[in-house]
User: Fold this.
Amino acid sequence: MAGASKGTQRCGIERTYAGNTESVHHAREDLGQWLASMDLAPLTADAQLVLSELSSNAVEASPHLEYSVCVSVEDGRLRIAVSNSSTALLPAERDWKSPDPLASQGRGLSIVDALSESVEVEQTASIVTVSAHLRTDMP
Amino acid sequence: MIATLASNMMTPQPSRLSFDLGDRHVGAIGTIDSHTADELLARLRDMGTKSDATLDLGEVDFIDSSGLRSIVTSHQEFEQAGTQLQLKNPSQSVTRLLEITGLLDLLHLS
Assistant:
């Protein structure tokens, strides 16, 4: 397992995926099924896009190493957290908050940021966890 | 609701992307993500940049920034050659991503 999500959040869905691009499709499918089971289907398009970006970043940062996904509903928000083993430095927030639209790279986190109420990045010596919080209509 | 599943218990199935290819035309059908984006760029490069070409995105059910990167890369290669890559029929998923990223007015949509 690439790493565990920090904190005490109870994951409604908690899965580990192989560190390859093929797995990103499976992660999106799993999320879509879970959201439907939670009556959160209207969030599917945005949530799958967020997860796709976070998972793709994890695979790119740590090819061939597994990454983990934890999804939960907390305080009326959907939390999507992806953790992977990485010692690489993350891009500075200023870079993904205002990206060059025609740049060849670096759109992933800016897309996540645009679709989320908030984005949190936690980095330890070897584990990076990026969490996105999306608003829901749930209490 | 708790669900746990190790990835090695799953049967791998690739993301799905197919193409409708014509003279100076590529139609993308399915999913454009980090697993398939290079295929799209390869099909676009197969056409060369000697004259304008079209990319039909009407049957794209999912796209993320990896797919967008292929489109932007090809767009810039056509621009450098003095020709244009025209994007046709962007699906809802494509349109949404172009709006989010501010590319809706920077690429050639028809």
